[in-house]
Amino acid sequence: xxxxxxxxxxxxxxxxxxxxxxxxxxxxxxxxxxxxxxxxxxxxxxxxxxxxxxxxxxxxxxxxxxxxxxxxxxxxxxxxxxxxxxxxxxxxxxxxxxxxxxxxxxxxxxxxxxxxxxxxxxxxxxxxxxxxxxxxxxxxxxxxxxxxxxxxxxxxxxxxxxxxxxxxxxxxxxxxxxxxxxxxxxxxxxxxxxxxxxxxxxxxxxxxxxxxxxxxxxxxxxxxxxxxxxxxxxxxxxxxxxxxxxxxxxxxxxxxxxxxxxxxxxxxxxxxxxxxxxxxxxxxxxxxxxxxxxxxxxxxxxxxxxxxxxxxxxxxxxxxxxxxxxxxxxxxxxxxxxxxxxxxxxxxxxxxxxxxxxxxxxxxxxxxxxxxxxxxxxxxxxxxxxxxxxxxxxxxxxxxxxxxxxxxxxxxxxxxxxxxxxxxxxxxxxxxxxxxxxxxxxxxxxxxxxxxxxxxxxxxxxxxxxxxxxxxxxxxxxxxxxxxxxxxxxxxxxxxxxxxxxxxxxxxxxxxxxxxxxxxxxxxxxxxxxxxxxxxxxxxxxxxxxxxxxxxxxxxxxxxxxxxxxxxxxxxxxxxxxxxxxxxxxxxxxxxxxxxxxxxxxxxxxxxxxxxxxxxxxxxxxxxxxxxxx
Length: 630
Known about the structure:
It is built from 23 helices and 6 strands. The protein is mainly α and about 625 residues long.
């Protein structure tokens, strides 16, 4: 850690102030490609140096670099020898040689027709003739050109003394061999053979195999490219060796630049290894690596450094403002003004809010509780006790009610009508407070927007009933977890448990359209589960209809009281009503999924038309009951 403090990044962070230029941070935190490569190389070298002999490793790396360069030279030679230019030239020479050979063969056939025995002028015969030439000029008559037909000369083939006819025949043979067609064919053949030898001169050897083994470890992609090039070269050599006139050239390029890059990298690592072998050099390498690594870490936290400079600049401005401002006088003046114009009004509003919420169990009062930095604070106390601590006296529900009263009193004292938001305001409150809180929130919504988040259905029902009683418009929304298991899905309207019978029927009608489409487009497999869920909702709607319609809302599950004044309309309940409820509940219970049918029954779910009829039966019954009562 001490070494990092001496790096550029460490010194920058250690001396960071509000005046540090952002450009300096960016400059130190930015590594170019060469520095990134150097950091990676130094990290590998120093890690290896701690485990093995760095001098030996440096020597091994130099050997590998030499192998890479030798391999590059061999591949370059192969590319030249077997490239398009060389193979095209070889093909042209071979075509020329073949053409010249055909012309020479034709001349040989003409000459052979004049000979005493067959075969004169053929390739085999010319080979014999050239051998005789070599023997004559090297041994028999080294001082004379071939054929020597002077006085006393002998035939080098049959060893007999040459007469005039034999001498003339040897001369004609030599003139034939030395003729233009034969000489041209020989020259063309020699040129083609020489070009072929040049193409086949470069042969990957054992050193190439060693270099390829090293390359496979260093860079698999470059190794594959080199192997592919060598394979093409071997195919080209094979076609040349077979004497094919149009040998396929090596089309792919050898990875010469990549090999040089690898060799240069190996040389650099070898140099670092050599430095690491020397204590002083190793210390310098470690310092360089620490500096580069610290700069790379600084690059990762550069946004935080910029933010810290901004924070220090702000803190500097705040400190200056604090030095320039004395709040004691402002605090005293604010306290006096607040006591004169705010405290009395706030206290009266707090007392009124407690009464409106029905809080009469304790006598409380709001008093000033000190001032700080120009702000006067207030605190709730027990009116007839100076030592009792209020949080230890009241229950959790009473504490929540007091907090609501204090908040509403503060809101009343404001000069604006901005929206207010409540998150489960009746949490920890028992049923005695729910109706009072709902009534107070509905009253407040007449002058400002009031947003309430709650998961308590009883409180929700109380809010809705109070809003309808006071004829205050409201907009319910339901937030739920969707089928994708993600929270935050918002839908307009109350949740299903909060809907009235009429709204449930309307919702089921909309759902029926979707169910019919699923049955029509996706078939029974997709239709069955949604139809089952719809029958379950239809059954729960029958149950709600019993409360709201048949029993005329005398008793509601989400309402505290029992409205006996509604009993007078229950005298019109008939046996047909009971049969309709029983039939609807029985029908829904059969298909809502709560009962397991016998396997032998295997009865399919009702089609959408039957489901629609069951829904219309409920709607018709509800309409009939309400019509006769109204």
